């Protein structure tokens, strides 16, 4: 995997077979951060092999933890001795999720200094709600020179209401609140499954949390945390991306390692437009029929339709019959894939938070650029449908969040090659 890799994709008529979902990137990142709470060695299983995970492990190493990845999806973090409270800009600037070390470091070291995350290709993404939460727990916040320093003598539980159910703010505040004196409530909390997985990990370490996975979380602070072994939940966005891969190629794919509750918003939409889906325990079979009726999609916090599936869904709507409207309510700039899809023959007009997609019978291959992780996935999916050859450049974005995407697609019959340029 290199910074200068691209995918070369030929049209695939029908993807068939079985694919295993990897562990969730968005659950693994906060859980890796949470290992910092316990003095000792925690082991995480089912950790996806992704560049974002490598960066997070490097950050933990810089803080004094000793991290080892066995190359088979198991990571050990020995956080016995932490000797730094500052994470280097070179690493934190690579990944927004790095800001999630703030909560556990504040809880354990009473002091943390991180670079303020800048904007990113999908939006401005401020961290004001994270900081408001720490402030409510009694921390002192100082900003300057591109950094934010958060310190406390001790953390004290409080009632926190989030103006928006931010996933990252809920996770960061939760990881500090578990060690605060007394009771913390987080109202209007994010209810994404990754938060429930983090809470489950924290609880196994000794934390006392109720309500995680709903919009109201209650935490009774505890003094100590023990290191544990824990298996990361499956990646619902990877599962969803393979569902679209099957639908867009008129395929027949069985996806193993799915938690059906987590992907309900997508399952509902795909059934509505004409895909056939059978759920059997943690396995899901999706059959495409080549004809989909366009629909409208609005991204919302869980259990609404996930913003992380919006771009991939747009690829499918591009080849559906009729007109669909996609409304993006979570990030203000998450339509960069639309122009690239148009270069492949899609008919999409973007106006503010809405994209109007008029279906076209077939896309055509082109050279396109992945502007971010899910935009990249959407272009790969479109490439599977497009006549001729599609080249997707800047696939380092895709490597942030999909483990061996090309290998998994090849195992289902896709003609996709990774080439360095
Ligand atoms: C590593 C990880 O888990 N990333 C996910 C996480 O990102 P992330 O945790 O960054 O997303 P948030 O839920 O925090 O962001 C949602 C919205 O809230 C805004 N906001 C957020 C925090 C804040 O302090 N102030 C503020 O205004 C953001 O700019 C954005 O418009 O949830 C997103 C929404 O489901 C997903 O797309 C990302 O894949
Ligand atoms: C936006 C995403 O991730 P991040 O928050 O790490 O940028 C994503 O996974 O689609």
TrEMBL record:
<dbReference type="GO" id="GO:0051301">
    <property type="term" value="P:cell division"/>
</dbReference>
<keyword id="KW-0961">Cell wall biogenesis/degradation</keyword>
<dbReference type="InterPro" id="IPR050068">
    <property type="entry name" value="MurA_subfamily"/>
</dbReference>
<feature type="active site" description="Proton donor">
    <location>
        <position position="120"/>
    </location>
</feature>
<keyword id="KW-0573">Peptidoglycan synthesis</keyword>
<keyword id="KW-0131">Cell cycle</keyword>
<comment type="similarity">
    <text>Belongs to the EPSP synthase family. MurA subfamily.</text>
</comment>
<dbReference type="GO" id="GO:0008760">
    <property type="term" value="F:UDP-N-acetylglucosamine 1-carboxyvinyltransferase activity"/>
</dbReference>
<feature type="binding site">
    <location>
        <begin position="125"/>
        <end position="129"/>
    </location>
    <ligand>
        <name>UDP-N-acetyl-alpha-D-glucosamine</name>
    </ligand>
</feature>
<feature type="binding site">
    <location>
        <position position="330"/>
    </location>
    <ligand>
        <name>UDP-N-acetyl-alpha-D-glucosamine</name>
    </ligand>
</feature>
<dbReference type="Pfam" id="PF00275">
    <property type="entry name" value="EPSP_synthase"/>
</dbReference>
<keyword id="KW-0808">Transferase</keyword>
<feature type="binding site">
    <location>
        <position position="308"/>
    </location>
    <ligand>
        <name>UDP-N-acetyl-alpha-D-glucosamine</name>
    </ligand>
</feature>
<dbReference type="GO" id="GO:0071555">
    <property type="term" value="P:cell wall organization"/>
</dbReference>
<dbReference type="GO" id="GO:0005737">
    <property type="term" value="C:cytoplasm"/>
</dbReference>
<feature type="modified residue" description="2-(S-cysteinyl)pyruvic acid O-phosphothioketal">
    <location>
        <position position="120"/>
    </location>
</feature>
<keyword id="KW-0963">Cytoplasm</keyword>
<dbReference type="InterPro" id="IPR036968">
    <property type="entry name" value="Enolpyruvate_Tfrase_sf"/>
</dbReference>
<feature type="binding site">
    <location>
        <position position="96"/>
    </location>
    <ligand>
        <name>UDP-N-acetyl-alpha-D-glucosamine</name>
    </ligand>
</feature>
<keyword id="KW-0132">Cell division</keyword>
<comment type="function">
    <text>Cell wall formation. Adds enolpyruvyl to UDP-N-acetylglucosamine.</text>
</comment>
<feature type="binding site">
    <location>
        <begin position="25"/>
        <end position="26"/>
    </location>
    <ligand>
        <name>phosphoenolpyruvate</name>
    </ligand>
</feature>
<protein>
    <recommendedName>
        <fullName>UDP-N-acetylglucosamine 1-carboxyvinyltransferase</fullName>
        <ecNumber>2.5.1.7</ecNumber>
    </recommendedName>
</protein>
<dbReference type="InterPro" id="IPR013792">
    <property type="entry name" value="RNA3'P_cycl/enolpyr_Trfase_a/b"/>
</dbReference>
<dbReference type="GO" id="GO:0019277">
    <property type="term" value="P:UDP-N-acetylgalactosamine biosynthetic process"/>
</dbReference>
<comment type="pathway">
    <text>Cell wall biogenesis; peptidoglycan biosynthesis.</text>
</comment>
<dbReference type="InterPro" id="IPR001986">
    <property type="entry name" value="Enolpyruvate_Tfrase_dom"/>
</dbReference>
<feature type="domain" description="Enolpyruvate transferase">
    <location>
        <begin position="10"/>
        <end position="408"/>
    </location>
</feature>
<dbReference type="GO" id="GO:0009252">
    <property type="term" value="P:peptidoglycan biosynthetic process"/>
</dbReference>
<dbReference type="InterPro" id="IPR005750">
    <property type="entry name" value="UDP_GlcNAc_COvinyl_MurA"/>
</dbReference>
<dbReference type="GO" id="GO:0008360">
    <property type="term" value="P:regulation of cell shape"/>
</dbReference>
<keyword id="KW-0133">Cell shape</keyword>
<keyword id="KW-0670">Pyruvate</keyword>
